[in-house]
């Protein structure tokens, strides 16, 4: 059992400092992931990698009912939080009272999607539909696109074979592209 898993168990047992320690240990990883997610975004985007990670921290700290089990579960929840924060940020920017005529933000960083660059809100809607079909595939896509994990990292985190993860990734891509077409 790794240090992160032990800290998460301590957090579930009521240790208020344990989740802070998890974030301290993984802060550099989360910040690098956030920076890579935001690298392809417009220059005028006001959301920085640091603020995105801090928003994720606040979101996960507020979710007291969330029982984070292990490193994979932590990254899955962090990826979902990043997605929600980025979608909320785009929605707020596109709101009419905040200059809704601005150019939409696109996902130029979406690894392996061989389609025209979709808008973040379209991807969010497609992921909501994918949740209805297969929640495991939705989680895979979130961890791949929003947490920036490679297929190898996803296989290692989930304890499944790379071939199995790759097969799921191909299926998820096909379902997403069909929904977004």
The tally of strands reads 0
- Domains (count): 1
Q: Mind telling me the C-alpha Rg?
A: 17 Å
Tally of alpha and pi helices: 8
Low-confidence stretches: 112-118
Share of helical residues: 55-70%
Q: Which structural category fits the helices and strands?
A: mainly alpha
Report on this model:
The protein is an all-alpha fold and 181 residues long. The chain has one domain. The chain contains eight helices and no strands. Helix 3 (49-62) crosses helix 4 (71-94) and helix 7 crosses helix 8. The longest helix is centred in the middle third of the chain and has 24 residues, at 71-94. The termini are far apart.
What is this structure's SSE topology?
Blueprint: H1 3-12, H2 18-38, H3 49-62, H4 71-94, H5 120-133, H6 135-145, H7 151-158, H8 162-180
Helix pairs in contact: 1-2, 2-3, 3-4, 4-6, 5-6, 5-8, 6-8, 7-8
Jot down its keywords:
181 residues, mainly alpha, 67% helix, globular
Sum this structure up briefly.
By secondary structure, the chain is mainly alpha-helical. The chain has eight helices and no strands. The protein is globular.
């Amino acid at each position: 059992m790794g240090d992160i898993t032990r800290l998460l168990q301590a957090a579930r047992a009521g240790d208020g400092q344990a989740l802070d320690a998890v974030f301290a240990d993984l802060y550099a990883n989360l910040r690098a992931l956030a920076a890579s997610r935001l690298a392809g975004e417009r220059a005028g985007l006001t959301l920085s990698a640091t603020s995105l990670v801090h928003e994720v921290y606040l979101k996960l700290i507020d979710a007291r009912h969330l029982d984070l089990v292990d490193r994979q579960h932590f990254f899955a929840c962090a990826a979902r939080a990043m997605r929600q924060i980025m979608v909320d940020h785009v929605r707020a920017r596109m709101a009419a009272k905040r200059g809704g005529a601005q150019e939409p933000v696109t996902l130029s960083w979406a690894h392996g999607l061989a389609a025209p660059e979709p808008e973040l809100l379209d991807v969010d809607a497609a992921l909501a539909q994918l949740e209805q079909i297969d929640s495991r595939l939705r989680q895979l896509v979130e961890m791949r696109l929003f947490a920036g994990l490679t297929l190898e990292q996803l296989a290692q985190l989930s304890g499944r074979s790379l071939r199995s993860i790759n097969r799921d990734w191909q299926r998820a891509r096909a379902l997403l592209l069909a929904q977004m077409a």
